[in-house]
Amino acid sequence: EAHLPAFNKSFKDLELGWFWDEETYIDLLKINGGKNRILHYSNYLNRNLSNSEVLNIHKRKQYHYLKLVESGAVKLKAGVMRLIKELREKNVRQFIVTSSSRNQVKALMKVLFREFNPFEFFIASEDVYLHKPHPEPYLKAISLSGIKTSNSIVFEDSIPGAKSSLSAKLPTICVQSNIPVIFESEIDLQIFINTLGDRNESTKIIKGPEISQGNVDYHFLNRFLSYNK
User: pTM for this one?
Assistant: First the structure.
């Protein structure tokens, strides 16, 4: 809802003559990180941008992304707030591990979690040397949290993210993205669902253990951990 239009707004501002449609962006999502996508695309066009030019484009993209977030353009997916609140009530520790910058995460937190912050910490792009699909972001989260991998669950909606968490030996639930991503061709999934589910939409298990209560909740997650042991 925000990343793709932010990229295109930055391209227009800087008069690059670029425009990414959804099909192009889906293909570029195979490459993790905004700066890496810009560099890859410029090389594809034989533009050979310098590091400073790539950083300038990305900086402008971040500006537009933050503006879109502040305007309310980004919403939580179905069932996310419901599950976060339930896990918080059960004293389940929660963290964010992302390829986004700290500024982006802080902006999202400010808009989406005005009433409370359920997350102990977040790992952002600046916090690691190697990014997803490398396992380093999740390995750092494991180290900081002190939680055993067998007692942890990751939710991911991208191929690089899922590769990262699975490489870190973490039980992973893949959730369909708003931008269609074909996980099955790239990863041996443990579980793949369409949504966490809420009162308006039940969870559909595309691959994995059955769900009896309609939505992903605390009890389902406990069963999922048992399924992985």
Answer: 0.86
